[in-house]
């Protein structure tokens, strides 16, 4: 059963054709002339949508795209944007605003053209009587299965307002956690890339100037200087091969990582073994697992299905496989805390909290507390890592740049001693 669930989670990326925006005119049931803009895959689909709304279309055409992007306002829809509109929907539903009106108001006031079209399509389908969860499933690039399942649970229980509040909190916490991980990864990489560029410029353009000066000395150069000059000559002759090789290696790795589940699993397994970074990613995976399971379980999703969602949201193949093993054990009747202990990957504190939750009937509350603790630990770890890396990176830069400068000035110091 765990293998079946794993295959289900190992989905390929779905390419969804971007809908086009159409401008239309027509006559409504009262005989009044009406007009507007709607997204659709083609004109036939758009006319069908209009007829469902009681509008007889008289003229439909594609909206012309703005020249050179002027006035377009189209930007990619990011997960953070989905988190923002989720919170807006939760707030407006909590204020008593009807769902269709909520979607309409948020869409009409959004500054991103793609988001406006996305919400307009959802509003149109909602108006024709399609449930919100089904409307969202038509846009899998922006609303994953977990999101849609939670909305469906809210619709079935009649507590969509409460469920949307939980979804909004979940998305906000998930994006905050993702931002912290990126902060820990991007900063040192960016500094090291800049350092590599500066060092390459020195070796290719600056060292040759000193080399020309040294040729006029007629004296034997120090070994360290000769070593740096040899590196400089190699860089001058083959820098483009090195650059092309780095680009090709990154391209091939990215492509293989995207197409090979085995490679992705291997990377996830080995990255957890890295010092400092591995511990940070492990805490982040535990936080995602606890947050997802708490949100889905509290929303009324059965525990087995909630564990499957948590496995997909864990963000690491090692934890995904472990959670699927827990799901298989729970399906066979074992308590979740015992199944987690058998996996030998979850911290003792998490297992004990789950055991207390199972005994008291408050698993979702205990998991929420676990998520809060581990999210705070990730936050503290990122701050500590940043504070630790700054002096280390400065030291490395000082050694590299300082070493180049010393190598170039050693011959001058030697001449000074002779004089």
In short:
The protein has 419 residues and is mainly alpha-helical.
Explain how this protein is built.
- With about 425 residues, this protein is mainly alpha-helical.
- It folds into two domains: about 1-5 and about 175-419, Receptor-associated Protein; about 20-65, Ubiquitin-like (UB roll).
- The protein has helices at about 1-10, 45-50, 80-95, 100-110, 115-125, 130-135, 145-155, 160-215, 225-260, 260-270, 275-300, 305-315, 315-330, 335-345, 350-360, 365-419, and strands at about 20-25, 35-40, 55-60.
- The longest helix is centred in the middle third of the chain and has 56 residues, at about 160-215.
The end-to-end distance, rounded to whole angstroms, is: 83 Å
Count helical runs.
Answer: 16
Largest sheet: 3 strands, antiparallel
**Which range best describes the helical content: under 10%, 10-25%, 25-40%, 40-55%, 55-70% or over 70%?**
over 70%
Radius of gyration: 29 Å
Overall pLDDT level: 82
CATH topology of the largest domain: Receptor-associated Protein
Structural class category: mainly alpha
Order of helices and strands: HEEHEHHHHHHHHHHHHHH
The total of beta strands comes to 3
Give, in spatial order, the strands making up the sheet with the most strands. Answer: 2-1-3
Q: What are the segments in which pLDDT stays under 50 over at least 5 consecutive residues?
A: 1-17, 67-72
Strand content: 5-15%
């Amino acid at each position: 059963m765990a293998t079946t669930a794993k295959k289900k989670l190992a989905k390929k990326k779905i390419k969804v054709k971007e809908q086009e925006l159409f401008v239309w005119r027509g006559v409504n049931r009262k005989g009044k002339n009406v007009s507007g803009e709607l997204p659709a895959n083609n004109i036939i689909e758009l006319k069908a949508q209009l007829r469902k709304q009681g509008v007889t279309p008289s003229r439909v055409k594609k909206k012309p795209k703005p020249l050179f992007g002027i006035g377009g306002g189209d930007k990619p829809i990011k997960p953070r944007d989905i988190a923002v509109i989720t919170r807006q929907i939760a707030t407006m539903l909590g204020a008593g605003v009807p769902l269709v009106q909520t979607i309409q108001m948020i869409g009409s006031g959004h500054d991103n053209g793609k988001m406006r079209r996305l919400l307009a399509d959802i509003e149109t389908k909602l108006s024709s009587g399609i449930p919100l969860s089904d409307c969202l499933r038509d846009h899998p690039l922006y609303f994953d299965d977990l999101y849609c399942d939670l909305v469906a649970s809210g619709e079935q229980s009649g507590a969509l307002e409460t469920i949307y509040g939980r979804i909004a909190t979940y998305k906000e916490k998930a994006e905050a956690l993702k931002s912290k991980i990126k902060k820990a990864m991007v900063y040192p990489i960016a500094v090291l890339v800049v350092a590599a560029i500066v060092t390459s410029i020195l070796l290719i353009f600056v060292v040759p100037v000193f080399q020309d000066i040294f040729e006029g000395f007629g004296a034997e150069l120090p070994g360290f200087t000769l070593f740096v000059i040899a590196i400089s000559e190699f860089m001058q002759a083959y820098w483009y091969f090195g650059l092309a090789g780095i680009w090709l290696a990154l391209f091939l790795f990215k492509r293989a990582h995207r197409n090979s589940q085995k490679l992705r699993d291997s990377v996830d397994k080995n990255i957890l073994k890295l010092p400092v970074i591995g511990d940070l990613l492990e805490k982040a995976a535990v936080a995602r697992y606890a947050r997802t399971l708490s949100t889905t379980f509290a929303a009324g999703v059965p525990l087995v299905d909630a564990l499957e969602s948590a496995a997909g949201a864990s963000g690491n193949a090692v934890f995904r496989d472990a959670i699927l093993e827990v799901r298989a054990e729970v399906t066979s009747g074992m308590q979740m805390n015992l199944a987690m202990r058998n996996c030998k990957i979850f911290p003792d504190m998490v297992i004990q909290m789950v055991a207390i939750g199972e005994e008291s009937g408050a698993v979702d509350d205990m998991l929420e507390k676990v998520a809060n603790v581990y999210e705070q630990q990730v936050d503290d770890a990122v701050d500590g890592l940043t504070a630790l890396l700054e002096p280390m990176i400065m030291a490395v830069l000082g050694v590299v740049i300082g070493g180049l400068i010393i190598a170039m000035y050693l011959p001058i110091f030697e001449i000074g001693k002779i004089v």
